Amino acid sequence: MSAATVLFWDIDGTLLTTARAGIFAWEDAIRDELGDSIAVGSLRTAGLTDVEIAVQLLKTAGREPSSDAVIRLVRAYERHLPSSLPRRSGQVLPNVRAILEQLQSLPDVYSLLLTGNTRAGAKAKLTHYGLQAFFTDGAFSDDTTDRPSIARNAMTLARTRVGEVAPDRVYVIGDTPHDIQCGLAIGARVIAVATGGYSVEELAGLNPWWLLDELPSPDQFLDRLGLVVPR
């Protein structure tokens, strides 16, 4: 098997927080497509894919969540997202940028996205917060609404890039039970962080490989993963 290490990163609540600025994009999308007004902020969307959020919103509006209606709503959300992000004071989460910079300097270490965002939604968020350069590709919710299927797509992508990877060299980093389930679906080690909508206590019950209040310093992170920075 390859000596490569692959890290699959969730976005919202793991790499960054938009301070729920996406709410504005969803509300504008609903007005565009349905002519309705829904208080999206009252709905718990942590861990849901963009497609699942669109389905939930259509049902809340009393509309049939047909494939065509879901796609139209998601595309409208994507159009509004870039202008919605500056409306809230979001931020890159603690130690994220420093860890990604260290990982980027290592040979045979690959950071890819594993996210419920669509490809366009992910690009908008990463670009706005200056993280786009750390990620060349990933698995998104454009192709499937099922989280484990997104995870399997991510593994297929990794194998295409680097060949077979030892299971103990594959990590999923996320902040929700959905991310932990993604990791389990592909036999990866899960690093769970309580920086999103779930507490340490809520995440602990799913037995992630490593559970943290927030991501640690780059040195601590790399040391736990057995990675060494060249001197």
Walkthrough of the structure:
- The strands form two sheets. This protein has a six-stranded parallel β-sheet, with helices on both faces. A two-stranded antiparallel ribbon has the order 2-3.
- About 40% of the residues lie in helices and about 15% in strands.
- It has two domains: about 150 residues, HAD superfamily/HAD-like (Rossmann fold), CATH 3.40.50.1000; about 70 residues.
- It has about 230 residues and is an alpha/beta fold.
- Strand 6, helix 7 and strand 7 form a beta-alpha-beta unit.
- The model has no long low-confidence stretch (mean pLDDT about 95).
- The chain has nine helices and eight strands.
- Helix 1 crosses helix 3 and helix 2 packs across helix 3.
User: Mean pLDDT, as a whole number?
Assistant: 94
Q: Output the helix-strand order.
A: EEHHHEHEHEHEHEHEH
Q: How many E strands?
A: 8
β-strand amount: 5-15%
Task: Tell me the CATH superfamily of the largest domain.
Answer: HAD superfamily/HAD-like
Which descriptor suits the 3D outline?
globular
Strand order of the largest sheet: 5-4-1-6-7-8
SS summary, helix count? 9
Give the C-level CATH assignment of the largest domain: Alpha Beta
Rg estimate, integer Å: 18 Å
Number of domains: 2
Q: Which sheet architecture does the biggest sheet show?
A: 6 strands, parallel
Q: Which architecture of the largest domain per CATH? A: 3-Layer(aba) Sandwich
Low-confidence stretches: none
- Which fold does the CATH topology of the largest domain refer to? Rossmann fold
**Helical residue percent band:** 40-55%
Structural class: alpha/beta
End-to-end distance: 26 Å
